[in-house]
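User: Here's a chain of 268 residues. Predict its fold as tokens.
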Amino acid sequence: MSARLSAGSLFSASLNESESSAIIERVVQVNLKRGQELVREGDESDAIFVVLFGRFSVCVRSRSEPVAEISAGELIGEIGFFSGQSRTATVVAARDSAVARLDRAAFDDVVAANPKIYQAILNSLAGRLSELSARAPSITQRNAARTVAIVAGGHGGLLPPFVDRLRRVFGRRSRTIFLDSVAMATRFPDTPPDHPTISHWLNQCENDHDLVIYLGDETAGAWTQKAVRQADQVVIAVHGVPTKALRCSRGISISDPRAVASPSRHYS
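Assistant: Prediction complete.
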């Protein structure tokens, strides 16, 4: 989904074709990796955003945990943008994500050229906010892990019997999907894991399934790092005699609160 198409769907309900085109031409797509800040609490509200794909956590200084999550199609920063107030929260990408950005200078230029657009946009946003409020549970923080990355913490990568058993057990759930680098290379040949097309597709998989399980490679290469960034929970699977010589997981922060060590000697 392009930034232009998303902006068109956001405003088309209240604007005619020429008015909508004036907005669409000034919209910019911004891609973010997990952990990157989109806006920071206290900063100037100089742009409004709509989420194209991915998920964002909403954080405030007075709370240690995120207070909400924002998903595809939802607005970010609209209250401060139109009220002139500073940002009331910090918004951080919880997945590799993308937003459509309309900054104040572009907005002011469009309104100056056609003043009636201002009220039309306000009407459109009011309708959008009403729609989002009606489905408020979808923008509160989700507690259950919906995406899990399993990476090897020892030599040799994930053992095939272990992976086979995972597929048998979780494959019984009709809305579970397993993704690994081989499957991704087949579906998206010659496309790096960080490409926005793949990010969008992975986030769509999350919307279409109850559980997405990412299987990491033997080393912490581009695919494994991508899987970790997409995951609600990271499982580091080890086998045999414990050793300090971690391979794949050496490229992953063990202090990450999502990381869970899963030692096992038996995979049958």
